[in-house]
Every structure is written in C-alpha cells, then in structure tokens.
Specification:
Helices cover about 40% and strands about 25% of the residues. The chain has about 350 residues and is of the alpha+beta class.
Length: about 350
C-alpha cells in the first residue's frame, strides 16, 4: 500500500511539473513581453512549481570570468533582484561542475563538494539548505544557470524535478536567442530604412538590376529623370528600355568584331565592357518615357557577385554593372545624374 501511495505521489509530481512547463512555454506573453518581464515571469513560475523560495537566472559574462545575475525572485517578499555576480575565481569547483553537466542536484548544499564554496558567504546568509541548478547552453556551450534554492534544511530532489529544471533552462535559452533575433531584426530594419532614405534622397538616379539585367529597384531621382515610376519598371524591364536601339545595335556590331563572336543587340551589348576590365565607361543616349532624349556617360563596373553602374545626362554620370557575352552574369546597380549634377560611382 505504501509503495503504491509513493508511486502515485511521484506520478502526480511529474504530471504537475509537465503541466506547469507546458503552460509556461505556451504563454504568448513570455515571447512578446520585454525580456526583463519574461525572465521575471519564468523565475516566479519555477518557484511556484517547485515550492522553492528563491529562483534565479544567471548568464556567463563575455570573458567567462563570472556569472551575472539576470533575475532573482524571492517568493516570501515577492521581490526581484537584478544586481549581483558569481566570480569564477571564488567558486572554481562549482563552475567546473556546471560546465561538465546539465544539472546539479545538491540535497545538502553545505556539504556537497560542488556547492560548499557558497556556504559561508551565501548559503548561511540566506538560509539555503539545498540547490538544484541546470545549465543554460547555447550550441552546446555553457552559457548560464537556472538556480533553484530551497530555504531551510536538506531536500532530496527527485528525477521529475531535475528534468523540469533542465527543460525550463532550455526554454530560457530559447527566449534569450529569440531576444537576440528580435534585436537583430530591429537593427536591420533600421539600417534598411536608413539605406532607403539615402537611396531616395540621392541627387543622382540609382537603378539596380538582377542577374538578367531586369530592374530590381528604381529611386526617386531616376523616376524624375526618366519619367517612369518604380512600379512600372521593377521586375518587368531591363536597362535596354532607356537606350537608343540604334546605338545598341552599333555597339553590338562593334563588340562582335572586337570579340570575334556574335553579340546580340540587347542588354549584353550595354554591359559587356565590365566583363573584360575593371570598368567600362561609355557615352550613350537615353530616352525618357515621353520620348525626350539626352546624353549620358555610363561607367560599368563589375563587383564580384554584385555590381553597379551610374549614368548621367549630358555627359556626366557614373555607373557600375555586369553581364556580358561568354561570362557569368551578375546583378548591377546604376547611378544616374542630370547634366548639372555631380555623380560618383559606388
């Protein structure tokens, strides 16, 4: 009878901890709230689930010389502390133990060789008798600790409790990685916004293409110069649209003679020069949407897997690009300016 009773208690403990973990992991606020709020919620949840007075989360410092406190919850006072650190030099055995394993279950924290380094200056001060710690690991590497402290005497930690703290430690690590991802996304959104602002505020036109010469972006200066909107051109036309077809045919014929192979009039004739040298600068006539014509100087420069070019009316812009016969095509970017504007290549 007693054995059956013990088994039922064990199953109930496992079930309650599984339910507590799933409830925590499924909470939308855990992922959407600020990190400080989310971490505080985790320490409170673990404290309730394990009936432990003190629960804390620590992260390894950049130089790995210390563990820095992220949040410590005391269920008796309801307070959260975020100031503190554990120096590796003061507790080398504890650090070695945490680096070597996933969970440290010290039923008697004062006598356990892995935790007794804390006895005089920490455990006695706060009345801690037992500790259950699980490591936070990022790509398998020790990165921090989820620490559960039982205030009072000794406490035997069962297997379900050990599994639970390891699972929550992994959840904490997921939340930290998610926070890094969100910060990176915010940074790149800001950077992208800045680049777009520079792109649109440039006094010269900037046009980029894909590997086939099809227009991929078209800034406001280019729109003013040529009379097209970005929506009209992106994904639908190549730079050939702006060129005088007669000039393109003449250029293709000249290239055919120069290269000893047929060059079809089209985008290759416009961009081929950059394939054979670091840069190719040439005068062209561009045609606006309304049929107006103006001279430009097109400098085409290959840049490995990407390239750019600039063009300007009455002989003055600069550009870079690629795509030529018998060589691999690459994306290009065109910079164009009016006759009265100064242009620089990128």
């Amino acid at each position: 009878m007693n054995r059956q009773s013990d088994q039922l208690v064990g199953v109930a403990t496992e079930t309650s901890l599984n339910q507590a973990y799933l409830a925590l992991a499924r909470e939308w606020s855990l992922w959407e709230d600020p990190l400080r709020t989310a971490v505080a919620h985790i320490t409170e949840s673990v404290s309730r689930s394990l009936h432990a007075r003190r629960v804390s989360i620590w992260l390894l410092s950049g130089d790995e010389s210390a563990l820095e406190l992220v949040d410590l919850y005391d269920s008796t006072t309801g307070d959260h502390s975020r100031d503190g650190g554990i120096v590796r030099a003061d507790c080398p055995v504890y650090f070695e133990a945490m680096e070597a394993g996933r969970v440290l279950a010290a039923s008697d924290a004062h006598s356990d060789y892995r935790t007794r380094e804390f006895s005089e200056n920490y455990l006695l001060q706060y009345g801690v008798g037992a500790m259950l710690d699980a490591t936070l690991r990022k790509v398998g590497k020790f990165s921090g600790v989820l620490c559960v402290e039982h205030v009072g005497g000794q406490r035997i930690w069962n297997e379900y409790e050990k599994r639970y703290v390891v699972s929550v430690a992994d959840l904490v690590m997921q939340r930290l990685v998610y926070e890094d991802t969100r910060r990176n996304e915010a940074y790149y959104r800001e950077l992208s916004g800045l680049q777009q602002a520079v792109f649109d505020s440039a006094h010269y036109s900037i046009i980029s293409t894909d590997v086939d010469g099809v227009i991929a972006s078209f800034n406001k200066a280019a729109s003013r110069m040529l009379g097209y909107t970005q929506e009209e051109l992106v994904g639908s036309y190549t730079l050939e649209l702006f060129h005088d077809p007669v000039e393109v045919r003449h250029r293709a014929a000249a290239l055919s003679v120069e290269l000893g192979q047929a060059v079809v009039p089209g985008i290759d004739a416009v961009l081929s020069g950059a394939h054979r040298s670091a840069a190719d600068e040439r005068e062209w006539t561009w045609v606006r949407k309304d049929g107006g014509r103006f001279p430009v100087l097109l400098s085409v420069t290959s840049k490995g897997e990407s390239a750019g070019f600039s063009e300007s009316p009455p002989i003055s812009p600069i550009a870079s690009s690629t795509s030529a016969p018998c060589r691999k095509r690459r994306p290009v970017t065109a910079h164009c300016s009016s006759a009265r504007e100064t242009v620089s290549s990128s």
